[in-house]
Amino acid sequence: MAFYAKVAEVTLLYSIFVMGIYLMTGLTGLFSLGQGAFISLGAYTASITYLRFGFPFPLATLLAVLMGVVGGIIVGLPTLKLRRDYFLLVTFGFSEMVRALLLWTAQLTGGALGVAGMPKLVGLPMIAVSMVIIVFLIGNLKGGRFGRNCIAIRDDELAAQSMGVNVYGHKMKVFVLASVICSYGGALYAFNIMFIEPNLFDWLESAKLIVIVFVGGLNSLSGVFLTSILYYTFGEVFRFASVWRDVILALLVIVIVIFRHRGLFGNWELSLRWLGILPSFHTAPRKGKD
Amino acid sequence: MNLNIFFQQLINGISLGGVYALMAVGFGIIFNVLKFSNFSHGGVVAICAYLGYFLATRVAGSLWITLLATTLLGGVVGVLVEKLVFRPIRIKGRPLTYFFVNSITVAMLVQQFFSALWGYDYYPYPEFIKKTALHIGRLVVSKTYLMMLFISALVLLGLTLFLRKTKQGIAIRAASSDIWTPSLMGINTDFIISITFFIAGVLAGITGYFLGMTYTVTPFIGSFILKGIIAAIVGGMGSLTGGGIAGVLLGVVESLLIAELGAAVTPIVIYAGIIILLLVRPQGIAGKLYTIKA
After folding, report:
1. Residue A251 falls inside a structural domain
2. Is residue B222 a contact partner of residue B110, using CB atoms and an 8 Å limit?
3. Could you read off the pLDDT of A81-130 as tens digits, one per residue?
4. Which of A19, A60, A39, A76 is nearest to A183 (CA)?
5. Contact indicator for A20, A224 with CB cutoff of 8 Å
6. Domain that holds residue A55
7. Is residue A15 part of a domain?
8. Domain count, chain A
9. If DSSP states are collapsed to H, E and C, what string results for chain B?
10. Domain residues of chain B, as ranges?
11. Which A-chain residues 266-285 have CB contacts (< 8 A) with chain B?
12. In a domain, A283, yes or no
């Protein structure tokens, strides 16, 4: 039973990261290979303030989230006004920079040895509640005006701009929000796994998050969520096959992008309307150019 | 830093910068034609590094034969990647985002494939050139570095000539400014794109071979593409000359910084510099700013 609880914890933790990426890549079309850096930033900020400076856990988590905001603004400010390529490339550089920074400030961060010794303050209930809140938040964003603007930006930036959407402002908000989700998830990660090191979240980890979003389907939040749950549960249960797992995932993505570019789940959304209490995250399927 | 070390690092930096320049040009030439950031270039570099290792240890023992074979195979790999991964979505007229996704996925696929197949082991290339060095005054120049510099310069010169003088080269330059119009002028754009990927693959082959020779072959060798990408940004995306110059500059700056500040701080300084550069002068050295056109 403890094993399954552990699997559930890890799966949900990673799904929090995937949700952050869904907001950014799935809805707004921003590609970042640096979200791993925000996860690391959050994890390190929370654990160092907790261990070295004796801050209580809620305050440490708050600081981790603030770190995500600051990092998001620093990276977003120069790059989001430019073509998407610059954003992609600079976030890639940013993740390498954070890694180098964590290794260099070994006095504070423990360098390549990582940080250990955090107590296990985050259990399954807390992760699950965070997950539900984040999914609810993103689902509402997606259905609302803000999310529709984001989808417009993703599909055609110029057209969105000429219809009066503040492209730069939307991108900035989305990027900072996604960074906050990632750094918050990082803080949870640090206090759940109880060990962090600089190489834990490299560009590959960020690339995997993007790829999961595309397998699930850009227009399907439920689909992305299910894909992420499936992928990470599979990885934890079949540890022996985990080296080939990413090879299979990568091949699957190429096939999906070529033959079924809307993702496995297309426009499908899980609807809870029949319960009568919860809203549905479904937006009307769009016609025409994708 | 005394003058002697300065010149020493300058020479090392220029040789390393030559490899960065090759990467930046290989990355930039595809950006020019298809207008997307081709991360799979790092994957092709990694494949070539392994190919070069395999050829050098199992098949032939000569530097020039294995280098040439790796280079040509690199071109073939480049074309294969294009035909299998990018051509299907290009034919269907998908937006650029899907090109991004596929190129990132290819880079991921290559790295994970080699990790899964051979683990995170290090594979050193055999020593072709005895670790001798030329002494010029008080400077010591490694023969490997000298050869790398020479070949990089030769290849970039050859590429420039190709792009300026031959029919295909001119077609590539035409396709760089607009991919659709040349197809109206009777140019086979599909073929031109294949040639572009072949050239990029050739450059990746040389890069992979050199990187494998100077460092060792690991699944992570494709991450070196980051240096080429940085050079491409600094040079102004899409400007091949700018990318080449920026590559050499980056190599020199990196070597000097490592000598002055140490290897740990250097990446931090360089990446922070890139963010500041984009704030001040987003169009890079060459001053070509790509914006989204309708």
Report:
1. no
2. yes
3. 877 778 888 888 888 888 888 888 888 888 778 888 888 888 888 999 99
4. A39
5. no
6. 2-201
7. yes
8. 1
9. CCHHHHHHHHHHHHHHHHHHHHHHHHHHHHHHHHCCCCCHHHHHHHHHHHHHHHHHHHHCCCHHHHHHHHHHHHHHHHHHHHHHHHHHHHHCCCCHHHHHHHHHHHHHHHHHHHHHHHCCCCECCCCCCCCCEEEECCEEEEHHHHHHHHHHHHHHHHHHHHHHHCHHHHHHHHHHHCCCHHHHCCCCHHHHHHHHHHHHHHHHHHHHHHHHHHCCECHHHHHHHHHHHHHHHHHCCCCHHHHHHHHHHHHHHHHHHHHHHCCCCHHHHHHHHHHHHHHHCCCCCCCCCCCCCC
10. 18-228
11. none
12. no
State both tokens at A178: 């996604």
Q: State the pLDDT at residue B294.
A: 45
Tokens 């993505």 sit at which residue?
A253
Residues B271 and A89: their CA atoms lie apart, in Å, by 11
The two tokens of residue A183 are 């750094």
Residue the block writes with tokens 């690339």: A207
CB atoms within 10 A of CB A51: 17
Give the gap in angstroms from C-alpha A56 to the nearest C-alpha of chain B: 31
**Least CB–CB distance from A207: residue in B108, B237, B294:** B108
* Closest alpha carbon to B216 in B91, B89, B121: B121
Contact A50, A162 (CB under 8 A): no
**B139 pairs with which residues across the strands?**
B136
| Cβ neighbours of residue A6 closer than 8 Å, sequence gap 6 or more | A236
- Are the Cβ atoms of A261 and B223 closer than 8 angstroms? no
Cα–Cα dist A150/A152, whole Å: 5
Scan residues 172-231 of B and list those with Cβ closer than 8 Å to A.
Answer: 223, 226, 229-230
CB-CB under 8 Å, B101 with A211: yes
- Contact between B169 and B46 under an 8 Å Cβ cutoff? The reply is no
What's the rounded Cα separation, in Å, for the pair B19 and A78?
A: 28
**Angular region, A224: left φ>0, alpha ψ -120 to 50, beta rest:** alpha
User: Is any Cβ of chain B less than 8 angstroms from the Cβ of A83?
Assistant: yes
In tens, the pLDDT along A18-51 reads 999 999 988 888 888 888 999 999 999 999 999 8
- Looking at beta carbons, which residues of chain A come within 8 Å of B113? 247
DSSP letter at A119 equals -
ipTM score for this prediction? 0.81
The angle at the Cα of B64, spanning B59 to B69, to the nearest 5 degrees, equals: 55
pLDDT digits (tens, 9 = 90+) for B178-205: 888 888 888 888 899 999 999 999 999 9
Whether A247 is in a domain gets the answer no
Residue with tokens 């950014």: A24
Rounded Cα distance, A213 and A264, in Å: 10
